[in-house]
Design goal:
- By secondary structure, the chain is mainly α.
- It contains 14 helices and no strands.
Length: about 375
């Protein structure tokens, strides 16, 4: 049962979220170096060192939770994202918490770095897209009304043909429905934030393969899942059928719809073909190239090594794939925006020339 967070804890959670990747890595390194030291003891030291800071306050909160929960995953629940909890719990169950924290930290840190790199690449495209909206606003609210006002006294606007219908009609639509377009863009951002962990409809696999934010979410979370599952397989055995109960336990603790959807498909594949190997992961949890790599590795390595290796390969190559796709999106945004702005400018020139022609014809009596 969730308890209500104090405002101080909420602020600490918000401050910690972008820093948690490095914290997981540091905690894993400390666990590895201090053999025999308990997790409670290590967190107690961190709480003292960072007293008065967000991390120190969070550690104090976790230490208090240790009094009521025996598992680290249960103590930190509610203070880190749900997908992190699922991976930490799986590693803790498998007795590989140190490795799980390290992998999760590398995944979170890699995703955050990749997001920053992608944003740096895309910012020029976003800026040009913003200029397109400014240009369209000036064109629709100032240029076209002034042009229409000037033309009405000298020529029949209805005789300007298709160009007049397109530009005057388009400007009128923009003036009447601009709020709907802006609202739709804002709504799209919120819809995207919801859809990444929650949408599992029939188009999700297409989105994971072709739409950049979904691809990033799939690659990094899928890779972390595979490595965590590799740690579990060390404990329960190399036969994939032996992973079925562990996958069920992982799903029961997870509140992330995308991950639960993937687990359902993996379990279904185990039931359909219990003697198969990497084929059970043909669910879209990783890209096509990584899946083929998984098939190749499975012929020569056991389940644990195969999952860990493929997961880490994904963490390594995903950033380059994301950057490549981000560059393509940037060019599309920039070229598309420039073409539309040039089109509006040239269209206005054509409209003015048509107006002159119509005005001359009217003046001459034609």
């Amino acid at each position: 049962m969730k308890t209500k967070m104090s405002w101080k804890l909420r602020l600490a959670v918000m401050d910690f979220k972008p820093k948690r990747g490095k914290f997981y890595i540091d905690l894993a390194s400390t666990l590895k170096a201090s053999k025999g030291a308990s997790l409670h003891e290590i967190i107690s030291k961190i709480a003292v060192r960072y007293k008065g800071e967000s991390l120190g306050y969070l550690c104090e909160h976790w230490l208090e939770a240790f009094k009521h929960h025996g598992r680290f995953a249960d103590c930190i629940r509610g203070t880190i994202p749900d997908q992190d909890i699922t991976m930490i719990a799986a590693s803790e169950d498998g007795g590989t918490l140190e490795e799980g924290l390290m992998t999760l930290g590398e995944g979170v840190d890699g995703l955050q770095k990749t997001e920053k790199e992608a944003f740096k690449i895309l910012i020029a495209g976003f800026f040009m897209f913003f200029l397109l909206h400014v240009f369209t606003g000036i064109f629709s609210f100032f240029v076209m009304p002034s042009l229409e006002k000037a033309m009405k006294g000298a020529a029949d606007i209805n005789k300007l043909g298709l160009a007049g219908d397109v530009f005057f009609g388009g400007a009128e639509i923009v003036r009447g429905y601009w709020w709907l377009w802006i609202g739709s863009l804002i709504g799209l951002v919120f819809l995207l934030r919801w859809a990444l962990p929650n949408y599992v409809g029939k188009h999700r696999r297409f989105l994971d393969n072709h739409i950049l934010p979904f691809q990033m979410y799939r690659d990094f979370n899928g890779a972390t899942f595979l490595v965590s599952l590799g740690g579990l397989s060390k404990l329960v055995g190399s036969q994939l059928t032996q992973l079925y109960p562990s996958l069920t336990a992982m799903k029961n603790r997870s509140t992330v719809a995308w991950l639960n959807w993937q687990i359902d498909m993996i379990q279904h594949n185990i039931q359909v073909a219990p003697n198969s190997k990497a084929e059970i992961f043909n669910t879209g949890i990783c890209g096509k190239a990584l899946y083929y790599r998984m098939l190749d590795v499975a012929d020569y390595q056991d389940t644990s090594a195969m999952l860990s290796q493929v997961g880490r390969i994904c963490l390594e190559i995903a950033p380059e794939e994301v950057k490549s796709k981000a560059n393509k999106i940037r060019y599309v945004l920039m070229v598309g925006s420039i073409c539309l702005m040039v089109g509006m400018y040239l269209g206005t020139t054509i409209l003015v020339n048509l107006f002159k022609t119509v005005a001359q014809e009217q003046a001459s009596g034609f």
